[in-house]
Amino acid sequence: WCFKIVSHSLASPCDPTFILSCAPCNVICSMIFQNRFDYKDHNFLNLIEMLDENVRILSTPWAQLCNMFPVLVNYFPGSHNKVQKNSSNIKDYIMEKTREHQVSLDINNPKDFIDYFLIKMEQEKHNPQSVFTLENLAATVTDLFGAGTETTSSTLRYALLLLLKHPEVSAKVQEEIDRVVGRDRNPCMQDRSSMPYTDAMVHETQRYIDLIPNNLPHSVTCDTKFRNYFIPKGTTILTALTSILHDDKEFPNPEKFDPGHFLDEKGNFKKSDYFMPFSAGKRMCAGESLARMELFLFLTTILQKFTLKPVVNPKDIDITPVVNGFASVPPPYQICFVPV
Fold it and tell me: Which domains does the chain have, with CATH numbers?
């Protein structure tokens, strides 16, 4: 996919949004459908558009108000209806693909997530309590798309924007890539342990952008007492991840983008218990390991092959999110990918 950037624009300004939306979405598609789509495929583009639109709507003040007071959804018309329509359309598409899988299913040679789920459904068909149903399959796959595409895409776009704003960081990452990986092979996950600065840059990007400031809504499964507060069973909880990711005791000058927040005095990578962009506990993001791999591999591959050039002075680059509700969406920008 990196070479698509070259064919798209050789060192000329371009908006990276499209390419950085397609690539992560195709990763999810390959897991679910065992198929990567062409970037001109009509169904693929519709899927990306609906996912992007949902994130933008959910990041509006109205959507955040509905998160806090869900009863509003039942009484007021609003953009949340578009979210529900998009989600319904995505589920319809997934069910269409599922019917195709049911016809071609080979239980001795499952090829993707849907095949494995259908096989488990067959094994549990006599269990009335089974959670392996077509309805749950559609919901699970929809969640995979919703949680694994636009979030990764937004983080990648923000990372490139921050690297444009801070060319000294980009230069240090490229130096480490040249020293550890070189130019004769692609980066791999085994390289990460030998690339503390790059690893710190990725962590700092996630910390700094605070992608999902108030986490996803959760609810307590039983009556709970927390710090002398009584929380009844079923209460919806919104946890402010910002308070952790921007804690000034753990991260000095938290409003400053600085990979040094994750490096010790010797330049080694330093873990932090305050690093929680994926939430924490039993209901933390199930796709954390995949997202970590994607962010590291996408960014190192880009910086191995290209030098990032801004179209304006780095000092004039605005990194303020355009919306900051459910997600911190980066502002649109132009970038030049200059082949190394």
Answer: 2-181+272-339 (1.10.630.10)
